[in-house]
Amino acid sequence: MTALLALQDLSVHRGSRPVVDHVSLRVGPGECVGLIGPNGAGKTSLLRAALGLLAHQGQSNIADLPAHARARQAAWMPQSREIAWGIDVEAVIALGRTPWLPRGGRLRPEDRAAVDRAIRRMKLESFRHRPANHLSGGEQARVLIARALAQETPLLMADEPIAGLDPAAQITTMEVFGRIAAEGKAVVVSLHDLGLAARHCTRLVMLDRGRAVADGAPGAVLTPERLEEVFALRAFYSRSADGPIFQPLESLR
To answer: What residue spans define the domains of the chain?
Structure first.
């Protein structure tokens, strides 16, 4: 498998405490990988270290690239998603094309086409010319997802991208990620909604206290034993004609 993301023994420390502890991971074309784990498991730190945004030990094929090459290889959507600028939604999304622009920075027809594709994918046609900072928090999140989509990199990495979105927008976003993977790219997305993770990700990586404790198909990862040990949770998991169904039932804390 050609790895679009390759991590080897990646570790991140806060003082003497490891928040990411020797994680190795390979993600190839066609995969939509859900990074799951309780609060404090190390999901955000792992994503940021993999992109070279956080000091780390170990190897990452993305972090080792020069900044310009990195921006052409991986698009990044962090948790922070407030838009302070009073510019049109279309202009915000067009910022995703920055790594590909020629000297002078003017959008070419292919750049405008990429922006249009991102707008359609996130169903933002009616928002195109509205000031981005006048939108609701959930709407701004959709705009920033579209900005990352417009970058059209082989790898997309997103940290809790569906937090704060309404249920329909959450499903739309996860469906978009699935289609991106099906086109031969790769997506790595951290999620707290285990139901959406089970339904839309081709693979799950479960973190607990900085370590990867499970990696595989959703049904193989979301076992009763792991859910109890890692999440202190009892849940219902089944398969239907529409895909996996996962429903938390009881906290065991």
So the answer is: 13-81+154-251
